[in-house]
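A quick word before the example. In earlier lectures we treated sequence and structure as two separate objects. From today on, think of them as two lines of the same record. Here is 4-nitrophenylphosphatase written that way.
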Amino acid sequence: MTVKLTTKEQINSLLDKYDTFLFDCDGVVWIGNELLPSVKETMELLQQHDKKLIFVSNNSTKSRNDYIHKLNNFGIFNINVDQIVNSAYSTATYIEKVLKLSKTDGKKIWVLGQSGITDELNNKGYQTMTFDDLTKKFPHDELTMDNIDNLIFKDEINCVVVGLDFNTNYLKVGITMQYLLDNNIPFIATNIDSTFPFKNTKLPGAGSIVEIVKFASNREPNAICGKPNNGMMDSILISNNLQKDKTLMIGDRINTDMKFGFNNQIDTLLVLTGIETEERALNEKIITYYTNKLGDIYDLSK
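And the structure line, produced from the sequence above:
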């Protein structure tokens, strides 16, 4: 039965029971560039109790170092890069550890997505190619569908990664599709979130772009590296030892965060600052606890 956190005694019980706290970020810690209420104090409380904090995000638009910078700007300190696992890093790790793509054969990975993906791939020693690279190579009037044959470098590409791209356009999708017409080219999706919270609304997530590419190329991704998929947990375990019965997954989405915890035998806490409702929280068996906001951990502890 899902339990709502409403008392100081429940918070004390949480602090006694769990040693590691996994946090989704967007919709839990912050929305856009705004830190949610009492989150900083909650992090400080958990650190004072020697809890391990790990930030687990499906957002591939930023690198792990970008996350540390953002946390520091919010006044949340003493977080190192091993405590950040996002879908960009998980994707790069999958390509390195599972696909075992060569880093020395001169091949490149085509990326439809933001710089977070290319940064993490480059950090692991992979070369990448993006539409932005093409804009530096070709005059603007040559970046057209009529010239698409000259914009394709099939001999240079050995993998395609698709994630959230704020500047997606028809030509970008068309180029991506050309590479995926070769079934030997791995198709990796960073994550398949349909939306993400932004200010007082929702915007299309990476899943909306992945769906376009899937439909156009008639291909399913060979791997999806974000929550709730196992690749994300594998990436966490590379740098962090978890005792699952002493770990709590905190998130704002049932189909990713809560499912991720449940699939990995980890207790879950749903916060209602993202896209879910109290009614849904009460009707889901995969949720251990729920509360209005992450900051309730601090607010109720006083």
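Notice the following. The radius of gyration is 20 Å. We will return to this example when we discuss secondary structure assignment.
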